[in-house]
């Protein structure tokens, strides 16, 4: 079994994001980067699946600048077998990334693509669904439980939807996107980092894959969302209820 | 160059087993605004089985056509077939924009549709402004901390809108033409099968549709306490309940209650946070609320930085007192 896991390099969820002075991008000084948390969950699931089925090859892929090597190495240190960097320095969008991933999929022929439901920088929540459409295969999004049939023909997935938990089966190969509750990703160990150094990290480009990674959504500018100001402190329940009734008039 | 085309929008309606999701009206409002500014028209497409009542509920909002794809093969919202049906409609109707309100349904189906149309897509749009023959969009990213001004290239634009950014339009007497969409189940992709849905009817409104939301965080130790304190206060106020990720992870609340960057986004008149610290991922889901109340025993909790009214104290003492005092009033 071969499993493809895309890893996006994003600002660490705990770092404060600041828009730069001319609104052309973000202040990157002092910003820590990490594997997109949902992608780490996807990779963890792939690793567990490999343990379950006995043998599987896990390929991690990142599309972006040379800096993405850092996240690919972290993915290898978690336990992935191979890594691929698709070098592309300009802006991308979900459709462009999906087209690059589709080209990799066609070359590698994995039985499963496990990815994050959403990148926490652009908050798009699109790439997996787009990739499934481009390949004409099934998708199961926002999943919190995964069971792959012994014969590898299908997967049973529990999805977190607005209405509740939904269970679907999807024919493999398919694109499966991870939600928060799927698992808790393991930490990288020193031994893992040592081993990762010897694992293959291939570099390619969209052109070599025969696709364009050009973005068709163009960000003209970024602005900081307006900040709310702190209001007042009340001392008692009576004071709070009185304010809500008479000042805010919301109850 | 693209030929300038008359704006022709396709709104994808959402319903829950035959009950219209009111958030759909945000997309309708957005479509109305675009049409008012540029001329052109919009249609609404409803997909499902036995969805006559949904179509009826949507008649009177100014759509040129109400397209009803009513077929047994669409009884569950599976992305492969839904996207295929929408694709055909968008192509035959020469749609220039396809939109829906951001939700797990739209997020599942619309990106798949966009790729079928070779269209790029924007999620969580908060503003669509005509600009000559084109449009400028605003959307939120980075957990709601950054607003991006974006252009979309291509003849068809697909996007989801934030419900809170477009308030529901009034209903009028003007009726839309109701058009049955022919669905040939044998041509639809069948890559996935529905198995079951585990919905626990709470008897309370959904947090995305309520005027007041009472939301609980890690301070709540178990589901009994959550129900008694958060649920109890919500019932006194006729409110919906919500929770932080921490409680969903702990199995204390169902995933449907999670508010935040990767859960539901709410913007009610009043949000009461009980024992929630105010991590940016949580604030992303509620900071556009009109009035925020925070009750937390830690005076330094970040949620106080955005709360209109802050009360320092133990929710186990304060909330029962609130419930009792609301009882008397
Ligand atoms: C990728 C990613 C996505 C995420 N998405 C979301 C999301 O969508 N929604 C979300 O909510 N979070 C999300 N999170 C998690 C988020 O970062 C926080 O961990 C989470 O919101 C914390 O929940 P909390 O405030 O309930 O818990 P805590 O941060 O532990 O806060 C508990 C608070 O309760 C107070 N407290 C404790 N006991 C009492 C008491 N008896 N009386 C009064 N106050 C008390 C404490 O002072 C503290 O402030 C996400 C995180 C990541 C990394
Ligand atoms: N540049 C990228 N490199 C690798 N994977 C990506 C990239 N962009 C998006 N992805 C994958 O697509 C998922 C959804 O991203 P998005 O559609 O941007 O929210 C992420 O969780 C990743 O798994």
Key features?
heterodimer, A: alpha/beta, 9-stranded mixed sheet, B: alpha/beta, Rossmann fold, 5-stranded parallel sheet, 8 helices, 29% strand, binds flavin-adenine dinucleotide, binds adenosine monophosphate
Structure explained in plain terms:
The complex is a heterodimer of chains A (about 250) and B (about 325). Chain A has about 250 residues and is α/β, with parallel strands linked by helices. Chain A has one domain: Rossmann fold, CATH 3.40.50.620. Chain A has six helices and 13 strands. In chain A, the strands form two sheets. A nine-stranded mixed sheet of chain A has the order 9-8-7-10-6-1-4-5-11, sandwiched between helices. In chain A, strands 2-3 form a two-stranded antiparallel ribbon. Chain A starts with a strand and ends with a helix. In chain B, β15, α7 (about 280-285) and β16 (about 290-295) form a beta-alpha-beta unit. In chain B, α3 packs across α4 and α5 (about 225-235) runs parallel beside α8 (about 315-329). The longest helix of chain B is centred in the first third of the chain and has 15 residues, at about 25-40. The termini of chain B are far apart. Classes of the chains: A alpha/beta (about 250), B alpha/beta (about 325). Chains A and B meet through α3, α4, β7, β8 and β9 of A and α3, α4, β7, β8 and β9 of B. β12 (about 215-225) of chain A pairs antiparallel with β9 of chain B. Adenosine monophosphate (AMP) binds near residues 36, 38 and 97 of chain A.
């Amino acid at each position: 079994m071969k499993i493809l896991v895309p890893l996006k390099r994003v600002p660490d969820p705990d770092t404060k994001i600041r828009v730069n002075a001319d609104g052309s991008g973000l202040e990157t000084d002092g910003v820590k980067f990490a594997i997109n948390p949902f992608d780490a969950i996807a990779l963890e699931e792939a690793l567990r699946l490999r343990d379950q089925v006995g043998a599987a090859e896990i390929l991690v892929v990142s599309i972006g600048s040379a800096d993405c090597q850092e996240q690919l190495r972290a993915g290898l240190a978690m336990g992935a077998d191979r890594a691929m960097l698709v070098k592309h320095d300009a802006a991308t969008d979900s459709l462009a990334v999906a087209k690059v991933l589709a080209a990799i999929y066609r070359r590698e022929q994995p039985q499963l693509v496990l990815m994050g439901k959403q990148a926490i920088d652009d908050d798009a929540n699109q790439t997996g669904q787009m990739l499934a459409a481009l390949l004409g295969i099934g998708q199961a999004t926002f999943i919190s439980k995964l069971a792959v049939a012994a014969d590898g023909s299908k997967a049973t997935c529990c999805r977190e939807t607005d209405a509740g938990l939904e269970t679907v089966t999807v024919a493999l190969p398919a694109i499966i996107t991870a939600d928060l509750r799927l698992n808790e990703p393991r930490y990288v160990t020193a031994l893992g980092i040592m081993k990762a150094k010897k694992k293959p990290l291939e570099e390619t480009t969209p052109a070599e894959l025969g696709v364009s990674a050009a973005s068709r959504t163009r960000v003209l500018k970024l602005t900081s969302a307006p900040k709310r100001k702190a209001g007042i402190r009340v001392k008692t329940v009576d004071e709070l209820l009185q304010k809500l009734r008479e000042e805010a008039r919301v109850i | 160059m693209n030929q300038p085309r008359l704006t022709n929008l396709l709104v994808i309606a959402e319903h829950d087993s035959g009950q219209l999701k009111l958030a759909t009206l945000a997309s309708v409002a957005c479509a109305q605004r675009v049409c008012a500014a540029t001329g052109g028209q919009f249609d609404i497409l409803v997909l499902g089985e036995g969805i006559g009542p949904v179509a009826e509920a949507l008649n009177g909002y100014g759509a040129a056509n109400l397209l009803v794809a009513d077929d047994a093969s669409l009884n569950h919202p599976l992305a492969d077939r839904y996207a295929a049906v929408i694709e055909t409609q968008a192509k035959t109707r020469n749609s220039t924009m396809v939109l829906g309100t951001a939700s797990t349904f739209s997020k599942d189906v619309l990106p798949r549709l966009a790729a079928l149309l070779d269209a790029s897509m924007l999620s969580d749009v908060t503003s669509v402004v005509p600009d000559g023959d084109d449009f400028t969009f605003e959307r939120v990213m980075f957990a709601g901390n950054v607003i991006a001004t974006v252009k979309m290239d291509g003849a068809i634009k697909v996007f989801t809108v934030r419900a809170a950014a477009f308030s529901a339009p009034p209903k009028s007497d003007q009726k839309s033409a109701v058009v049955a969409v022919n669905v040939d189940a044998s041509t639809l992709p069948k890559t996935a099968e529905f198995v079951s849905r585990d919905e626990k009817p709470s008897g309370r409104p959904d947090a995305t549709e309520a005027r007041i939301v009472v939301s609980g965080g890690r301070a709540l130790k178990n589901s009994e306490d959550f129900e008694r304190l958060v649920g109890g206060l919500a019932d006194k106020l006729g409110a919906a309940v919500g929770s932080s990720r921490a409680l969903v992870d702990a199995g204390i609340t169902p995933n449907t209650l999670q508010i935040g960057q990767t859960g539901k986004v709410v913007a009610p008149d009043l949000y009461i946070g009980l024992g929630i610290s105010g991590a940016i991922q949580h604030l992303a889901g509620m900071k556009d609320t009109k009035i925020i109340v925070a009750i937390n025993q830690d005076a330094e909790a970040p949620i106080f930085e955005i709360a209109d009214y802050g009360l320092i104290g133990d929710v186990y003492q304060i909330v029962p007192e609130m419930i009792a005092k609301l009882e008397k009033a």
